[in-house]
Write a structure and sequence with these properties.
Distance between the termini: 102 Å
Structural class: alpha/beta
Strand content: 15-25%
CATH class of the largest domain: Alpha Beta
CATH architecture of the largest domain: Alpha-Beta Complex
Shape: globular
Number of helices: 10
CATH superfamily of the largest domain: 2-enoyl-CoA Hydratase, Chain A, domain 1
Radius of gyration: 24 Å
Length: 298
């Protein structure tokens, strides 16, 4: 019966031979602490199967979720920020941009693409929060403006997925100018009667909220997203009062009339396709059909 007992004493496994669980195999929900495999987490579209908490995801994941077979044409992928103000904080602004580009494999805080969603053409501009907090600089404003122009020229609905900490302080006034620039482009898009859907995700704050994020034909959000101009801590310190429970959550903002509806990420693709179908102009009936409808039966 020696297999039930350790016969040899002092068995020691060398450190280099010890087996450890590789990093990245498991995901722990920040809200309810449920642990699931990363493969299941991805299958759940980066939401918690127990409490429905929506993890922050970026353009790569949203493109994968929305575009049919993850096929799309990226627009203006080469654009990168310059340093108009010769800005230096703890490091020069160009060095910060280069370091962030290497770390994230992104050119800036937004990516734009054209693809199909349930066989319907769609242009998507999606912000990446891991690029300097999704801050809105001149490149972000320019890429969004060009994506809107592309939608206007080709009469394709436009979806903006916002996720931002606000304006980029390293570009000062140049950053703030993007609020007016993108808003003016959206006004032109509206004149052409091309649908615009704005999806606000966690977090959407600052100049992004004050401009293009709230100008959609439909303004929608994911559950639990933080939406506001300034953060709750800043507002509380400013007014010196406690804030209502759930202040600036998507549910709070919906209750106060600033959103049209909240959509779960698993339903996002279908709901957006439904909105595109609802908003796009109906094609005029063929002359023969019109004559047939107006014909008098004799």
């Amino acid at each position: 019966m020696s297999w039930f007992k350790r016969v040899e004493k002092g068995i020691v496994t060398p450190t280099e031979q010890k087996k450890e669980t590789p990093d990245g195999l498991w995901h722990k929900c920040p809200e309810c602490k449920t642990v699931i495999s990363t493969a299941e987490h991805r299958q759940q579209l980066y939401t918690c199967p127990k409490c429905d908490f929506h993890d922050r995801v970026n353009s790569q994941e949203y493109f994968e979720i929305l575009f049919d077979e993850n096929q799309f044409q990226e627009l203006d992928a080469h654009l990168s920020s310059s340093d108009p103000l010769n800005f230096v904080d703890t490091k020069p602004y160009p060095d910060r941009i280069l370091a962030t580009q290497r770390k994230t494999n992104l050119k800036d805080a937004v990516r734009c693409a054209h693809g199909t969603i349930h066989d319907l053409d769609l242009v998507v501009a999606c912000m990446d929060f891991n690029f300097i907090g999704g801050s809105m600089g001149s490149v972000v404003g320019e890429k969004i403006s060009r994506a809107i122009d592309y939608s206007r020229q080709h009469k394709i609905p436009f979806l903006m997925i916002s996720k931002s900490g606000g304006a980029r302080m390293m570009e000062a006034g140049y950053s703030l100018m993007q609020m007016a620039k993108t808003s003016a482009k959206l006004a032109l898009l509206s004149e052409e009667k091309v649908p615009y859907i704005s999806l606000l995700t966690d977090p959407t704050t600052g100049g992004v909220t004050a401009s293009f994020a709230m100008l959609g034909d439909f303004n929608i959000s994911e559950p639990g997203a933080l939406i506001g101009f300034a953060g709750p801590r800043v507002i509380k310190e400013t007014i010196g009062k406690d804030l209502p429970k759930g202040f600036q959550s998507a549910e709070f903002v919906l209750e106060h009339g600033f959103l049209d509806f909240i959509v779960h990420r698993k339903e996002l693709k279908k709901r957006i396709a439904d909105l595109i179908t609802l908003l796009r102009p109906q094609e005029a009936a063929a002359p023969e059909e019109a004559l047939a409808k107006n014909a008098t039966v004799k």
